[in-house]
Design goal:
Largest sheet: 15 strands, mixed
CATH architecture: Sandwich
Keywords: Signal
Radius of gyration: 15 Å
Organism: Methylobacterium soli
Pfam families: FecR
InterPro entries: FecR
Protein name: FecR domain-containing protein
Strand content: over 45%
Length: about 180
């Protein structure tokens, strides 16, 4: 894997100078195009890439995650990401403003929090580690998750049920991002 030293557990910094965000699909393979002012750091234990931006936004993508950043006004400061498979852990500092994740079964929006999104063909799961996150089906009513709560938004389902996740389930998801 380019940019990753076999067996290395710590960070290996890769600075990305320029990018076109629309259509930039990231995965834990070769480092893809990013936004200016952000760096990508590949890790091997667990395998993931961490995108860190100058404004404090951090996105950890587990190995094999397919997502693209959304920068509608092309200012180099993404407002969101569209994820189609696997998982992301997102850390948005309060001073930054909002950030939105678009997944096949749900939309998660937030300001100043840490949360994870896990996408499969059958469902989109969202877990909040810190802060709160609004989750809705595309075009549907939103529910708000608080720290320690999660939700499974299943394909074809109609209702949204917020649950307090067990420490084992939360730890299992967060471990995929080295947390």
């Amino acid at each position: 894997m380019p940019g990753v030293v076999p067996g290395r557990r710590g960070p290996l910094r890769v600075t990305v100078a320029t990018a076109i965000l629309s259509g930039a699909i990231l995965s834990s393979g070769p480092v893809g195009a990013q936004t200016r002012g952000c760096t990508v750091t590949p890790y091997t234990d667990p395998p993931r890439q961490v995108l860190s931006c100058a404004d404090g936004l951090t996105i950890s993508a587990e190995s094999g995650t397919a997502y693209k950043l959304i920068d509608r006004n092309r200012d180099g400061r993404p407002e969101g990401a569209e994820v189609t498979s696997r998982g992301l852990l997102i850390d948005v500092p309060p001073r930054r403003g909002g950030f939105q994740i678009l997944a096949p079964h749900a939309v998660a929006s937030v300001r100043g929090t840490v949360w994870a999104v896990d996408v499969s063909a059958q469902k989109t799961s969202v877990f909040v580690r810190e802060g709160s996150v609004a989750v809705a089906r595309p075009g549907g009513q939103a529910v708000t998750l608080q720290a320690g709560e999660g939700i499974d938004v299943e394909a074809g389902g109609t209702s949204l049920h917020v649950q307090r996740w067990s420490s084992e389930r939360a730890a299992g998801l967060l471990a995929r991002f080295g947390r």
